[in-house]
Amino acid sequence: MSDTHANTVAYVRETMLPQVAPPASSTGPVGWARENLFSGWFNTVVTVISLAIIAWILIGIVPWILSPTWGATSLSECREILTAAGSVGEHGTSGACWGVIRERWVQLLFGFYPSDLYWRPILSFVLMGVALAPVLFADRVPSQLIWFSAAFPFIFPWLLWGGTIWGPLAVAAGFVIGYYVFRILGAATSNLIGLVVGVLAAVIWWLFLSGYVVDALASVLPLGIEEVPSRNFGGFMLSITIGVVAIACSLPLGIVLALGRQSDLMIVKYICIGFIEFIRGVPLITLLFVASTLLNIFMPPGTNFDIILRVLIMVTLFAAAYMAEVVRGGLAALPKGQYEGADSLGLDYWQAQRLVIMPQALKISIPGIVSTFIGVFKDTTLVSIIGLLDPLGLSNAIRADSNWNGIVWELYGFIAVVFFIFCFSMSRYSMYLERKLRTGHK
Amino acid sequence: MSELATDREIDRSKMQVSDEVAIEISNMNKWYGTFHVLRDIDLTVYRGERIVIAGPSGSGKSTLIRCINRLEEHQKGRIVVDGTELSSDLKNIDKIRSEVGMCFQHFNLFPHLTILENCTLAPIWVRKVPRKEAEATAMHFLEKVKIPDQAHKYPGMLSGGQQQRVAIARSLCMKPRIMLFDEPTSALDPEMIKEVLDTMIELAEEGMTMLCVTHEMGFARQVANRVIFMDQGQIVEQNEPEEFFNNPKSPRTQLFLSQILGH
Ligand SMILES: Nc1ncnc2c1ncn2[C@@H]1O[C@H](COP(=O)(O)OP(=O)(O)OP(=O)(O)O)[C@@H](O)[C@H]1O
Ligand SMILES: [Mg+2]
C-alpha cells in the first residue's frame, strides 16, 4: 500500500490544521433563523406573511379542537355544552363535537367484531409488529425472528377469523407440498417443469383436497377458536388487514411481473404485459365491483368465497400491476455492466437477480414502491362502496344515527388523522431505509 | 503511450507457454442484426500465453473477447474454452464463466456490497465454498492487489484504480484459469493506470493465461508474447511484440501504429 502511494500520490496531508469555532451569530437558533428566514428583504417579507397565515389558521382551528365536548352523547348535547360555554360564533355554535369519537372510536377500530374477542385483533396486530421487525429492521433484531415472520401469515388470519386450527395448517401444508414437488421434480427434470408442477400440485391441494382433510382432522381433533364471520369485520382493523396483505403480496408479485415483462420467453412476456396493462387500464372500483358481484357468477354454485378474500385478491392484483412498473423502472436504471459483472462470475439467472440485480433495483425504486404502498393503503377506503364497513363505511352508518346526524368534520378528521399517521410513518421509514442503504460517498 | 508499463525487470521464469490449448476459436462469425461485426476469426490460445489485442475503435475487440465467455453470442463457427464448446447449453456457459475471469473498462463492481462481499459472492454461491474459507481467499487476493485495508468499504468509496484492482481480485477469487481484460485502464487517470498495470504484470508473472484488449503499448511490449491487430472485424496481423512494433507487415497496422504511437 505505502509503496504504491509513495509512487502515485505526490502530496499526502499528515497533520490537520486546528479548528476554529465559527462566530456565534452564524450558529444556534439565531444563526439558523438569520440564514433561513431573514436573509434579505424578499425572504423577510415572505417569512412575515407566512407567519401571519399560519397564525390565522391556528386561531381559527385551535379553539375548535379544544372544545369541551368530550362527554356529549349526541350532537344536540354538544350544542348545549358549547352554548353554555359561550363559544357561539356567527354561524351558530363553533367547536368540535368530540363525543362521537369517544362513543364510537372502538367501533371505528374494530367494526362489529364481537367485543369479548377484541383481544384477538389486538394480539394479531401486536404480533404483526413482531413479525415485521426482522423485515423492516433486519440489522437491529435477532435474525431467528424471521421464522416467526414466516409463520405469521398463517397465524394472522386464524386469529382474526378463528375456526379450526387445521385450516391454516392445511394452507401451510400446500406450500410445503409445492416446495417438495418443485425440489424433487426440479432436480430430476428442469427447474421450469418443477416450478409449474409444484405450483399445480399446491393449487390442487388447496382447491380440492385440503377441504376434506381439514374436515376429517377437525372431526377427529376439534381444536379451534370461535369463528368470526367476515361481515363483522370493519373499521381500521379491516383497512389495515387489507392494506397489509395487499402490500405484502403485491411486492413479490410485482417483482415477478417485472421480471416476466423482461423475459426472453415470448409467452411469459406477453402474459405479463397483458396483465399489467389490463389492470392498470381499469379503475380499482370496477375490480372491486367484479369482486363483489360478478365473481360469484363464475364460481360453481354453492361455493362460498369469502368477500374479504375476494377484495384482498383484487386489491393485491391491482397493487401488483403498479408495483411491477415501479420495479421495472428500477431495473431499467441499472447499468448493463451489473448484469455482465454477475454473468461473468458464473452466477445463474436467479442468483444474479436475487443477489445483484434486485437489491439494487429495489433500492432505486424505494420511493416509488412506498408511494404505491401508501396509495394502496388509502385505496382500501374504496371498499366502503361495495358495502364493507371500513372507517368510511362506518362513518356513514354513524352519521345515519339520529344522535349524530349532521356530524362531519370530527369523524372525517379523526379518520384522516389516523390514515395520516400510517402513511406518514411509511414515508419516514422509506427515507430511513434510503439513508441506511446509501453506500457511495456523498 | 509508447512508454514502458513498468521500470522494473520482469520476472519471466514462470511465464511459460505450454502446448496445451486453452481457447480455440475457429471460423467464428458474429452479427449484430445485419451488421457483420466479427468475420472468420481463427485464434488458438495456448496455456500461459499473454495476448494483447489492439485495433481501432469499433474494430470488434471487445466483441471478440466477450464472445469467449458468452456475454455475446456468436452465430457461426466454434469456440472451445478449456475443452468445453460454447453452445446454448446454459450449464456449459455457467461452467465456462466460472473458469474464465473478466475485467471490464468500468469495473462493474456491485455497489451495494462491500469489497469483501464482492469478492466472496461468486465463490460462495457458484463454487459453494464455505463463507469463512471464501473470506480467507478474498483477503489473500486483496492483499495481492494491495488493498486489504479497504475490505469493508463499499466500491463507491474507492478510487478508480483501487476499484479496478478489486475487480481483478474478485475475478481471481474464482481461481480462473484464463483472464480476459477489456480495456481495464481506459477509464482511469494516468497515475492510477500504473497501479492496475502493476497488478496485471504480477498476474502474468505467475503464469496466468491472459487476453487483454488495451491501448497500453508499453504493456504489450513488455508483457505480451503475442500482439493481435484487429480491424473491421478481422484479425489482420499477429506477431511477437518486437516484430509487431518494429516490423508491421500490413499497411493498416502501420497506419494504426503510427497513430497510436503518435510519431
Ligand atoms: N449491442 C450492439 N448492437 C449493435 N452493434 C454493436 C453492439 N455492440 C457493439 N456494436 C458495434 O460493433 C462494432 C464493434 O464493437 P466493439 O465494442 O467490439 O468495438 P471495440 O473494438 O471494442 O471498440 P472500442 O475500442 O471503441 O471499445 C462497433 O461498430 C459497434 O458499433
Ligand atoms: Mg471495446
From TrEMBL, chain A:
Residue spans crossing the bilayer: 41-66, 118-138, 145-161, 167-185, 192-213, 233-259, 271-295, 307-327, 364-389, 409-429
Listed InterPro entries: AA_ABC_transptr_permease_3TM, ArtM/GltK/GlnP/TcyL/YhdX-like, MetI-like, MetI-like_sf
Localization of this protein: Cell inner membrane; Cell membrane
All residue ranges annotated as the ABC transmembrane type-1 domain in the record: 236-430
Coiled-coil boundaries: none
A Pfam family that the UniProt record links to this protein: BPD_transp_1
Major location category of this protein: membrane
Keywords assigned by UniProt, alphabetized: Cell membrane, Membrane, Transmembrane, Transmembrane helix, Transport
Entry membrane topology: Multi-pass membrane protein
Family named by the database record: Belongs to the binding-protein-dependent transport system permease family. HisMQ subfamily.
Database matches in PANTHER family: INNER MEMBRANE AMINO-ACID ABC TRANSPORTER PERMEASE PROTEIN YHDY (PTHR30614:SF41), MEMBRANE COMPONENT OF AMINO ACID ABC TRANSPORTER (PTHR30614)
Protein name per UniProt: Amino acid ABC transporter permease
Organism: Arenibacterium halophilum
UniProtKB/TrEMBL annotation, chain B:
Entry's Gene Ontology molecular function annotations: ATP binding
Residue ranges constituting the ABC transporter domain according to the UniProt record: 23-257
SUPFAM superfamilies recorded: P-loop containing nucleoside triphosphate hydrolases
Positions in coiled-coil regions: none
Xref: Pfam families: ABC_tran
Keywords tagged on the record: ATP-binding, Nucleotide-binding, Transport
PROSITE patterns named in the record: ABC_TRANSPORTER_1, ABC_TRANSPORTER_2
Alphabetical list of InterPro entries matching this protein: AAA+_ATPase, ABC_ATPase_HisP-typ, ABC_transporter-like_ATP-bd, ABC_transporter-like_CS, MetN_ABC_transporter-like, P-loop_NTPase
Similarity comment: family membership: Belongs to the ABC transporter superfamily.
Annotated protein name in UniProt: Amino acid ABC transporter ATP-binding protein
Species of the source: Arenibacterium halophilum
Lineage: Bacteria, Pseudomonadati, Pseudomonadota, Alphaproteobacteria, Rhodobacterales
